[in-house]
Amino acid sequence: MNHIIFHIDVNSAFLSWEAVYRLTHKGGSLDLRQIPSAVGGDAALRHGIILAKSIPAKKYGILTGESIPEARKKCPGLLLVPPNYSLYEQCSAAFLDILRNYSDTLEQYSIDEAFVDMSTSCHLFGTPEQAAADIKNRIREELGFTVNIGISHNKLLAKMASDFKKPDRIHTLYQEEIPKKMWPLPVSDLFFVGQATTRKLFSMGIRTIGELATADPAWIKGTLKKQGELIQTFANGVDCSPVLTTPAPCKGYGNSTTTPFDVTDTETADRVLLALSETLGMRLRRDNVKIKTISVSIRYFDLSCLSHQKTLEQPTDLTAEICAAARKLFRELWNGRPVRHLGIHTGKVEKAAFGRQLGLFDQTDYAKLATVDRTADALRRRFGTDTVMRAAFLGQSIDHMSGGISRDRWAPDYDKTAIP
After folding, report:
1. Fewer CB within 10 Å of terminal CB in the chain, N or C?
2. For position 45, what pLDDT does the model report?
3. Nearest-CA neighbor of 64 among 47, 81, 51, 73?
4. Could you tell me if 334 and 295 are in contact, meaning their C-beta atoms sit under 8 angstroms apart?
5. Whole-angstrom distance, CA of residue 241 vs CA of residue 39
6. Is the pLDDT of residue 174 over 70?
7. How does strand 5-10 pair with strand 37-40?
């Protein structure tokens, strides 16, 4: 009970950051946060979903993740702005820099939220509520956007508290406050309870967090197995996880892309898979790890999905080896129908070891491939992504470093965008 944990969550982060940037740097006069607005992808490039929305837009029932046409049906006057991930990274870094002034024990949970262990430093700033108010007000005054802060004795309850009424609020959720503040909430609001679990709980007659917390543990575990045991523990406010200043090692690396047109031939698919392998391999080498399993996922034009995986004979971080395995999996999986989305995912991550075990008849020069990859990585880091490009991509519409955040979403051209 001596622990003091804060969860700080930026209100409508992507939209708030865009609003502040337009007001302070682009001469804008309209605050996106005060009108029905949203950050959305480009429907022409088939990235047409809502990434963030304003509180006024939320009142129309607009949801993060829904398609732009669906959102416009609910709110025809919705103002859409393009994403700007370069800006988001800068705002996130500035946000975290302020938090580090209050504690050395900080865990970045996502680009727009963090846990801060204030147990040993809170007394320097007053009561927990006073310290939280200082943080909240400083972020608003120095950076221009607002946050919610949840205060409790563990991470779970602090996160639940920060999701209470928004924006620009501070909420506590201590153990003794659980029956009044948390138990009346719908069970879908509980951390780790998704749509499928919510449906199962509803079918069991459990609709609130309190009903889950006080249900027979044997019944919950017997019906929902280990997950049931975990979420019932959460419903009672129990969480022993520490605030981690160092991120846990990545258990798998993945990369995927929605193509701007349907892929209908293996030559184009091979090019997309090579582009995905380029960026994936670069990330593996950056983190000095190798992977042992590879899977390929396909989403067809009708949004149906399939995946297929294999285990490699040797761990690898080589672009050529990842690509060869991905192409083989694709051919085994693809049924000839038009493809709109391709992905490569990996597992069995391990620290990269020097050298590798060679097969008796394997004539591949792995050392040469590794040198080529690392040289290309170094050139791209120093001079830009397009410094080195494989000839297969010349004159093609497929980006040679595909996947993740596409370039059109990384930094929009404000010269071509009207700023109201």
Report:
1. N
2. 57
3. 51
4. no
5. 33
6. yes
7. unpaired
Residue 49 is given by DSSP the state B
- pTM (two decimals): 0.85
- Average the pLDDT over 22-47 and give the result: 85
Residue pointed to by tokens 């939280």: 132
Report yes or no: 115 and 158 within 8 Å, Cβ to Cβ: yes
Orientation angle between helical segments 266-286 and 319-333, nearest 10 degrees: 140
In the chain, % of residues over pLDDT 90 = 79
* 127 in Cβ contact with 12 (< 8 Å): no
- The upper half-sphere exposure of residue 332, i.e. CA atoms within 13 Å in the direction of its Cβ, equals 13
By CB neighbour count within 10 A (0-12 exposed, 13-18 middle, 19+ buried), where does 358 fall? exposed
Mean per-residue pLDDT, 178-192: 96
Alpha-helix residue ranges (DSSP H) falling in 101-171: 128-143, 155-162
Instruction: With beta carbons less than 8 A apart as the criterion, state whether 222 and 183 touch.
Output: no
Q: What are the start-end ranges of the H helices in 214-301? A: 217-235, 266-286
Would you put residue 91 in left (φ > 0), alpha (ψ -120 to 50) or beta?
A: alpha
Long-range Cβ contact pairs of 59-66 (< 8 A, separation 24 or more): 60/36, 62/36, 62/38
Question: Token pair for residue 182?
Answer: 């948390």
DSSP H or E stretch at residue 251? none
The whole-angstrom separation of Cα 8 and Cα 26 is: 28
| DSSP states along 67-102 | BHHHHHHH-TTPEEE---HHHHHHHHHHHHHHHTTT
Residues 315, 281: contact at Cβ < 8 Å?
A: no
Are 5 and 118 within 8 A, CB to CB? yes
Write out the DSSP string of 168-235.
S-EEE--GGGHHHHTTTSBGGGSTT--HHHHHHHHHTT--BHHHHHTS-HHHHHHHHHHHHHHHHHHH
Q: Is 113 a catalytic residue?
A: yes
Distance between CA atoms of residues 68 and 57, nearest Å: 13
Give per-residue pLDDT as tens, 365-391: 888 999 999 999 999 999 988 999 999
Spatial contact of 270 and 133, defined as CB atoms under 8 Å apart: no
Q: For the chain, state the CA radius of gyration.
A: 24
Give the side-chain half-sphere CA count within 13 A for 59: 8
* Whole-angstrom distance, CA of residue 103 vs CA of residue 256: 37
Choosing from 66, 113, 278, 321, the catalytic residue is 113
* Torsion sign over Cα 405, 407, 413, 416: negative
| Strand-pair category, 79-81 with 37-40 | parallel
Partners of 347 in beta bridges: 293
Structure tokens at 132: 């939280």
